[in-house]
Amino acid sequence: MEMNIALLPGDGIGPEVIAQAVKVVNAVAKKFGHTITFKEAITGAAAIDAVGNPYPDATHEVCLASDAVLFGAIGDPRFDNDPSAKVRPEQGLLEMRKKLGLFSNVRPTFTFPSLLHKSPLKKERIEGTDLVFLRELTGGIYFGEPRGRNEQGTKAFDTCVYSVEEIERLARMGFEFAMKRRKLLTCVDKANVLATSRLWRETVQRLAPEYPEVTVEYEFVDAVAMRLVQWPKAYDVLITENLFGDILTDEASVISGSMGLMPSASLGLKTKLFEPIHGSYPQAAGKDIANPLAAVLSASMMFEYAFDLMDEANIISEVVNLSLEKGIVTEDLSEGEKAYKTSEVGDWLAEQIA
Amino acid sequence: MEMNIALLPGDGIGPEVIAQAVKVVNAVAKKFGHTITFKEAITGAAAIDAVGNPYPDATHEVCLASDAVLFGAIGDPRFDNDPSAKVRPEQGLLEMRKKLGLFSNVRPTFTFPSLLHKSPLKKERIEGTDLVFLRELTGGIYFGEPRGRNEQGTKAFDTCVYSVEEIERLARMGFEFAMKRRKLLTCVDKANVLATSRLWRETVQRLAPEYPEVTVEYEFVDAVAMRLVQWPKAYDVLITENLFGDILTDEASVISGSMGLMPSASLGLKTKLFEPIHGSYPQAAGKDIANPLAAVLSASMMFEYAFDLMDEANIISEVVNLSLEKGIVTEDLSEGEKAYKTSEVGDWLAEQIA
Ligand SMILES: CC(C)[C@H](C(=O)O)[C@@H](O)C(=O)O
Ligand SMILES: CC(C)[C@H](C(=O)O)[C@@H](O)C(=O)O
Fold first, then answer.
1. Which of A103, A186, B62, B261 has the fewest Cβ atoms surrounding its Cβ within 10 A?
2. Could you tell me the fold of the domain covering B1-102+268-354?
3. What distance separates the 2 farthest-apart alpha carbons in chain B?
4. What is the DSSP string of A294-339?
């Protein structure tokens, strides 16, 4: 197969971990006889520094022309505590999501048997956890207008908006995921307070009869924030709006004890994007110590979700498991044993595939 | 001292647990020579059924005339999955908070040595956790206008609004709490996305120089959702807006393993309200099995925050600790030993105080 892949390494440790994903993708392509063309483009703080825009048009063109985007991370502490900064790296991320129509952020949380002891939670609580969030990614309070300040600057406001169509396309994807999994769908909202949440709940209730095999539960976001910690195994597929998803998917990632390993996919209208969830982690940037496994597993999700190539996807998760078992891991996982460099882990994984 | 206390038992297990708090308050009053006048009033689903309004004017008058309100819980599953219900119990709660000016919800999370093993988290992660959230309670997306639907019903919207004054009064309370504690204040926001969050951050940054002894940290809400599970001991005082506070305080309550025991105080302009955080828990209502300790500890917070009577507050927490040590507990905590009834626990606590 011929594949056009856009590479957006971004900020912080992004470039280092994406470089390892590329090694792995190349090894898979060679083994299975695919032809891959990579095109690299700038985003985030790097792009602000270079051209004053965190998501330049040229980068957008590269993404549009791609079958899939491999994305590193965006974010730079220089901008975080400066509420008056005019351009922020995160704006690039949001613009990219919106312009590429990436309305569904797929965030699995699962456990690795060899890493269970790393979790802050007790083993019996998390063993076998296998849930996936579909977070709505191009609507809600992230994009609603009006937003800003009153003239005197004494008041600020944001608007959360959802249309039935936005909810419906995300919800249908949720039902379809549930059909392929354990057939349990949880709609997470705050319908006891928010008008938008009531539209979410109504819409999901209207669709439910079309998927009679799926059991649908409705839970308030605050209750889910608790139950995720108490008993994550209770969940299968969770659907939710943008801001709730932001909070809950990060919370969920930490229960597995393997946050540095969690990949994600953003699906939608114009292309598909694959991204480790760990963020730019600036403290580790440039040191060749960052854990590349989340980026590598994002490449595995790419073969599955963008190209429907399950053998290619599976061989990647298998070598990742092998690296964990054999201790070919970076310092965050090495536990007093030899710590490998980011680049060494990437090399090792690529060799195993070959 | 003479004290006027409004009793709002509310829905579900509210009446049962408030009854135990009353026994304890009476015992304390007798011991320390205070005169207490209780006035009971209706709220929630109970009030909808009785007079069609979850926070009737008569109830508001009782609260206004009180020095403190002891509140049970509001909420009834009859209303939860009916997005079209015209009146909801929760509206009464929100109206009460707004009309009484209860702008700061104080939610401590701490651990009980004898209950550490109940937590889903590992002991070493939580032992010694002692944090307190100040959640803004009368602003933000809970109250902002406009909210509702477009004419065709195809779109819904909510508005999040904050004024500098609303942020400042909550933030000042946060600095003052920090001064009396470990002098660490964490401002939780989403300043990389939301205009309201940027005003929060700016306001806190402006006030910080007035409290030079307090270390101020700024963290994004998604990061806090993770770190609360990873290392809750890192926090001392956290301030945040209404919706983030709703989610994070519930998450925090579960890490201690003692969710059924966590009290809260809502402070503000016209009176002070004290409330167990467990909610109405309808499945247990009427069975005399609900754990009354959170309501009883809310009464302890009442003596501290409404009347500045520390001896009275402390004796209550001491007898609660004693009941835990001696196993005079309801079935949620009895672990195969004898389970006491809600009312028996209340009687025992009152006797110990006498
Ligand atoms: C960086 C930030 C704008 C972003 C978000 O809130 O969506 C991040 O937290 C994420 O989850 O991808
Ligand atoms: C019942 C609901 C409206 C309420 C809230 O969201 O504030 C509750 O969750 C709480 O935290 O007191």
1. B62
2. Isopropylmalate Dehydrogenase (3.40.718)
3. 63
4. HHHHHHHHHHHHTT--HHHHHHHHHHHHHHHHHT---HHHHTTSPP
- Cβ(A192) – ligand 2 distance below 6 Å: yes
Phi first, then psi, for residue A299 (nearest 5°) are -65, -35
B250-254: average pLDDT: 94
> What is the per-residue pLDDT across B128-172, written as a single tens digit (0 to 9) for each?
999 999 999 999 999 999 999 999 999 999 999 999 999 999 999
What CATH number should be reported for the domain whose range is A108-259?
A: 3.40.718.10
Q: Which CATH class is domain B103-259?
A: alpha beta
Question: What's the token pair of residue B267?
Answer: 């402070």
Whether residues B229 and A122 touch (CB distance < 8 A) is answered with: no
- Residue B90: helix, strand or coil by DSSP? helix
CA separation for the pair A45, A300 (Å, rounded):
27
CB-nearest partner of B195 from A157, A192, A198:
A157
CA distance linking residue A166 with residue B158, whole number of Å: 16
Atom of ligand 2 nearest to the CA of B249: 11
Whether the pLDDT of residue A51 is over 80: the answer is: yes
Radius of gyration of chain B (CA): 20
Is-same-fold flag (B1-102+268-354; B103-259)?
yes
* Prediction pTM value: 0.96
Q: Where are the domains of chain B?
A: 1-102+268-354, 103-259
Q: Measuring CA to CA, how many Å separate A106 from each of A148, A274, A354?
A: 30, 9, 29
A250 is catalytic: yes
Confidence of residue A81 (pLDDT cuts 50, 70, 90): low
